[in-house]
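Our preliminary data section would be incomplete without showing what the modeling component actually yields. Below, a chain of 220 amino acids is followed by its predicted structure, encoded as tokens that our downstream tools consume directly.
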Amino acid sequence: MSDFRLASFAPPVQLRRLASATRPLRRIALGAVALAALAGCVSQPPRLPSTTNATTSLTTQTSRAYHGRFAVQYVDQTGQQRNAYGNFDWHENDTTVTLQLLNPLGQTLAVVTSSPAQATLELPNKQPITADNVSTLMQESLGFALPVEGLRYWLQPSIAPTSRAHTTADQQDPSRLSQIRQDGWTIDYLAYANAPATGVKRVNLTRDDPPLEIKLVLDQ
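Predicted structure:
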């Protein structure tokens, strides 16, 4: 009982000495906690988005090239049915498309460049012709017009985001499209490339008014 009283009623001087002795220890402990927290912040820096991956993805999506063969059946201004066929090279970079049409011997028939600013058509041994609309330019110069703006999406294949469309999935592979109907055109996907290649292999495009039929075979 006497020991309990001595411990419970220690003189104020001894209490002050005890408190003074424990202050440095508390300061050291608090300092260690602060250093540990600071070390944790340094060892785990905030994650920043990768601009390199975003740029690469954008470039991949907006740069495309196709090579293949085409056959066009159209009606000229006199009402006569005409045919045109040959090879084509398609180069797309961002919003600009360059389409080169060649005859079966590899000679250039026309080079069409389409961008939001203007459209340009070059014929052999003639000055380039410019217009605001690529369809009007091709119709007046060649007698038929390929739907260049729509083909930018239909060759992927995908619907153009500028208007409503109706799509039909492939019965054998529902992940693929078998048909798109958009802007007065019917786009039928007849064949896809065999693995490991990807993309469309054969596609037919038809329009009723004015009548126009386009057959494309993509080699790559």
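The first strand starts at residue 63 and ends at 75. The chain has two domains: 2-43, 64-218. Preliminary results of this kind motivate Aim 1 of the renewal.
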